[in-house]
Amino acid sequence: MNKLRIKALFSKKAKEALADEALEREIHRTESTSSYMQKRRKIYVNMNSHLSDKEHHYVHNRVRTAKYTPISFIPKNLFEQFRNVANLYFLFLVILQCIPLFGVVEPAVSAIPLICILIITAIKDGVEDWKRNQSDQRVNCAKILTLSHWKNVNIPEEKKERFHFIHVAIGFLCSMAGVDNKYSHTYRLSLTKDLPIKRVDINLEDDQSPLNEVEESHSIPEETITTNNDLLAPPPPPPPTQAPPTKFYDKVRARSDTLRSEISNIFSNKANFYRPGSIPHSVLHRAPTPDIRRMSSSTPGTLKCSDLPAGSPPTTKCKVGWQQVQWQDLHVGDYVMIRNDEDVPADVVILSTSEKDNLCYVETQNLDGETNLKVRQGLNATSELRSVHDCERAYFYFESEPPHANIYQYNGVMKWDIEQPNEGTTVSHQKTEAVTYNNLLLRGCILRNTKWVIGIIVYTGDETKIMLNSGRTPSKRSKMTKATNPFVLANFCILAAICIISSILASVNFKRSGSSQYFDFGIEGDSSSFLGFVTFWVTLILYQNIVPISLYISVEIVKTFAAIFIHYDLDLYYEPTDTLCNPRTWNISDDLGQIEYIFSDKTGTLTQNVMEARKCTVNGISYGVGKTEASIGAELREGQPKPPPSTADEIDLEKAKEKMYESQTFENKYLGPNPTFIDPKFFVDLEQPDSPHSHAMIHFYTTLALCHTVIADRPDKENRNFIDYKAQSPDEAALVASARDVGFVYLGREANTLTADVMGKIKKYELLNVLEFNSTRKRMSVIIRPHESSDKIVLLCKGADSVIYERLCTDFGDQIELEKSQKRLHEVTLDHLEEFANEGLRTLCLAYRFISPQEYKRWNKRYQEASAAIYNREEKIEEVCEEIEKDMLLMGGTAIEDRLQDGVPETIAELAQSGIKLWVLTGDKTETAINIGFSCNLITLDMELLLVKADTREETLVELEKAIKKADELNGEKRCALVIDGTTLKFALEPKYKNLMLDLGMRCASVICCRVSPKQKAEVVRLVKKGLKVMTLAIGDGANDVSMIQEANVGVGISGVEGRQAVMASDYAIAQFRFLQKLLLVHGRWSYLRTAEMIMGFFFKNIVWTFVLFWYQIFCQFNGSMMFEYALVALYNLIFTSLPIIFLGIWDQDVSSNISLLYPELYRMGLRNDKFKPWQFFLTVFDAIYQSSVCFFFPYMILLGGTIQPDGRDQNGMYELGTFISGISMIVANFFVMFSLYSFTWIQTLCIALSILSYYVFVCVYAQFNTFIFAGQDRVFGTGVYWLVLILTVTACYIPRIAAKHYLHQYHPYDNDIVREEELVLHSGRSNRRHSRITESFTTKVNPEVGINEKGKRSLDSSIPTTTRLSV
What we know:
Elements: H1 2-8, H2 12-30, E1 41-45, H3 51-54, H4 73-81, H5 85-97, H6 107-110, H7 112-140, E2 143-148, H8 164-176, H9 182-192, E3 199-200, H10 259-267, E4 321-326, E5 335-339, E6 347-353, E7 359-363, H11 365-368, E8 373-377, H12 388-393, E9 396-400, E10 412-419, E11 427-435, E12 440-441, E13 446-448, E14 452-459, H13 465-468, H14 479-508, H15 528-542, H16 551-567, E15 582-583, E16 597-600, E17 607-618, E18 621-623, H17 629-637, H18 648-662, H19 682-686, H20 692-706, E19 711-713, E20 724-726, H21 730-741, E21 744-750, E22 753-758, E23 761-771, E24 779-786, E25 793-799, H22 801-806, H23 816-838, E26 842-851, H24 853-867, H25 873-884, E27 889-900, H26 904-913, E28 917-921, H27 926-935, E29 943-948, H28 953-969, E30 975-981, H29 982-988, H30 994-1002, E31 1006-1010, H31 1014-1028, E32 1032-1036, H32 1042-1047, E33 1050-1054, H33 1061-1064, E34 1068-1070, H34 1075-1113, H35 1126-1136, H36 1138-1147, H37 1153-1158, H38 1164-1168, H39 1174-1198, H40 1214-1236, H41 1242-1262, H42 1280-1307, H43 1311-1322, H44 1330-1342, H45 1362-1366
Parallel strand pairs: 16-28, 16-32, 28-31, 29-30, 30-31, 32-33, 33-34
Antiparallel strand pairs: 1-9, 2-4, 2-5, 3-4, 5-14, 6-12, 6-14, 7-8, 7-13, 9-10, 10-11, 15-34, 17-18, 17-27, 19-20, 21-22, 22-23, 23-24, 24-25, 25-26, 26-27
Helix pairs in contact: 1-2, 4-7, 5-15, 8-9, 14-15, 14-34, 16-34, 16-36, 17-27, 20-21, 23-27, 24-25, 26-34, 28-29, 28-30, 34-36, 34-39, 34-40, 36-41, 39-40, 39-42, 40-41, 40-42
């Protein structure tokens, strides 16, 4: 590993290999099967733990996301800043100047620029960290309820030693330094142990009613349905005579494999054989009889409340109660009570809740970004814990896996001992219950719709899953920052060159005759070599400003303002959700102006992710009317013209809806306000008596009403008939809502009972199992038993068609008719689903099967064993689910529409016109994606569609080569659009074929990848980013888009209905896809131009100043003399020239935002990198050297004769000349900004004027001090010679630059030069032809490089050859 790290410093491949190894280690760390996960922890509750367990110190619950502490701020911040090579360079120079040999008169002044930079950066870092610290304090000091006067045996007892107060003092210092050790632990205990207990009186016994109760009092009573065709409600059996079936946990066999149980069995009396099943499955019942006492109760007067059996009244001296404590004072093993709408303070195992079925509901938005409520289940064995006395009388312990970062996985087991009734406290049996992810509340979640939850803390502080997942997003540096480094290196080379030249020439002049050696005083030494050595370091100090020390901090300031402007841009504000654009990464704003490829998710990004159930197919008959946006796209694909916007379709749908509900014969008081499923013939077919198809429709919609995990919420207290369904997936909520609107209403769940209103009749079903959906299974199932029948068990399943069809029944035995009907139904349903997909709808299949009680009993035993497994639990559950989800019968399918967001087609067209290529990466079917592509302008009629689909590597190679050949044949004739599915993409991304895939993608204007996984999305982005060396942007809204968002150069998250996980991982967060247009074409382009001009300006002004000093060395034998007062050197970059160049980077605009949007082609300047090429840097260096020579030699030659002032003073002294030249150089540097500006505003003019004025004010004030070399220098400004020299020199400096700019503007203009001339001078641009442009927009979108050349005037689209300017 160490060798690989060393190689990674010099080898790019070794660096990638090191990154891959780190990724593998992280994956291995999060797997429950890894060796890391075998190191389990034990958490004891009211039990004496083993010594090794008690000695374990768990981390405290205090979290700290702040980077600094009061003690560590100064050293740590200095360390961070001096990791910057430029800061180290200037620190080295400051140290050099402190050596008297090098002749610096005031070394302290030389440190001023570096100190200012360090202080400004430290203040910025300190303010940011102070905000984080304030946030940490708010979290750590939040209140929560925990048990008081109760001992947590997991906390090591504190022993006060002789020097305890010293340990407390050391702990205080450690806490201030952010160090967590035993001393800091001792210090925190000393703070909390003497605090008064704030007790809170809570009576849980009077709080039994749940927040989510099923209301059914106004519905028709439950009726018995005798028809044999009713799938879910068969004929009722005779009155039951047997006892109700016991649950699985009540049948757990006694453990006989422990050492204690074997020893107990040897000495036990066989006549008193103990049966574990006689004791309830509860931690409160540890013996067959309730009068058993523990050993402590055998002594009179020592009876404790905790020794009493469950249900007994507390003792008179019992002080146990709930108290309020701060989060930071919680420990592993503490009881906590969380009330409704409170945040969860740590990772907590749920013991009991206020709900009858021991459920609770949580919102996990802070954890995984999902806004939908999720259901969590309390443990069965602790569901009876209702009071503080129950909590202290429960004896159990947890075996928990160690902390890891996987928020969707937890494996643990709860164990408690059963006491032998006749053998004192000898334990002969131990009960267990599995603890899974569904029994865990994670820190950061919020309890909703549940009055209270009691739990035990298993992870605290930095070991909680949210803290383990709070790693930083990948550090990103902008492209221009990386490109600046070679320019800085070139400046270092120039610096080294002029220092070496100066040292060589100084050595040559050592033996030169003259009087200077009499004034040496031994400084130059006795040899030319020593003089050359000293001169090198002296000139290094002298020329130090050639490296721009303030460049980096100035760039940070400019990008900070760019982020602020983006954040407060009202055009990027989305009023329905009150959401502004949120720049989360502030240092890459210029990258927004150079994006060449955009990778976008479809659902929730291009579409609204507001699902509407539009169509379905039941028993071979299709239902649902109306056109979708994708169906219009399909018509465009066939060459039909796009219909104009009209309300005719809406009127027709309203009429169809009225006709549909007119034929409904039963009352549905739960009808939603806006039904989306419309078909006039639906209720006609549904209410046909004794019709097999009618029964099939009832079965189908009853399945939709029952096969889900949604929560039925009644938010309106006045209208209790309004039910709002909250689900983890918008698809699921839409399907249940559509069933509600046609009379199949899911009313809610109590314990394991589902209640539904089926066509006005209340029906109840016992929920036996829920086989949940995940991305691997692509399906979910429920196993239910209707209350009318105790022996009829039904499995209901819904999922993707490919998954469901694989699990349909193929062996029908002698049921010939059923086989024929199912085969016909398979074909017809598949055809209907294909039609739905062609219309852009998301499809699902529904299926069912009957299960015999004997088969279910055997399967459920295996399922419960898999659910209770400690290791490989998910894999075992998956295997068991495969056993039951088979041989199903098909019922039909559903179709859901996800409408396009507003402005998506127009935005995609404008982005294409700007030269940006868009790739859509979606999980939808191929036909659905193609039709959506046509509807949103991603694919247009003039494009050739290249469909690549293969099942093997060999076929993939053939298809890719065929598509490349086809694209080459059409080169120049038609643009191509590539569509490739996930299976083919899997092979195409392999190293052997990825270059072919990349070549094909480059030949296409648009690319759609269908059926892709989150991992494939990231791989596609990586392929293009690294293969083409281009700037990429990824945009998405869901957790499955995080990987590609982090892989791209710029990640954009959509704050939609799928939560905020994509937003939390992004660099920029916006509310709508259409906002991407202004974010890139306006803010991104402006930031690119401003940053490019600003960086060039920094190099220019520093080189001018440095070479002026270099030219003077010619006349002082290169001895390193400085003709400037050192205060001027220190303040040149800090005050005199800093603000104008910074203001240029903040405010300058070539054209307004409206004109930028009218000319998307302007964005291509960033794609071509027109303003930041190496030749421009070297041309700027050459211009700076030229202007520095003019700044020096013009005043030198004019003042060579030594003009005399009227009062007899001369102006040709070294420091007088320095004052002359420093003022001229400062004005030349500020005029560079003025000539680089596109827009002259009063802010820019005032800034430049004040910067120049500040120089003269400083010189005049500083000259009043009686210093040997600078007193009276203000008199220089009182002569006409100075101002004449100033005007002549500045004019001579800028004549070549102005002439060159005029030539380039006239004969080789940039795109924005042409637009500025058209819009600002000729007034003949697109803003003046906007009305005519509307009629020509379709032509422009088809061929964006076709322009208008009016009366021979220059046009952005026509006067410049596309090969030099407009082609990318």
